[in-house]
Amino acid sequence: MTSTATTPATTTSTFGALIRTGLLATVAASAATMAVAAVGDATGISLDVADAPIPVTGPVEVRPFDDLSQA
Description:
Elements: H1 15-42, E1 48-49, E2 52-53, H2 58-69
Antiparallel strand pairs: 1-2
């Protein structure tokens, strides 16, 4: 009879890895937000608020601050 012992892999999280992951998630969320806004604009959905147009890149400029305020 043969017995094999396995050692579970340990993961050490560092502050830098957490920041890097957060930044990547923010960039991905910003890109997805802009893509949805661009598709909506292309299909005729108005991006106007109070009769003032919002550029497609507008939500991308606000998204990172929104993500940071949730932390």
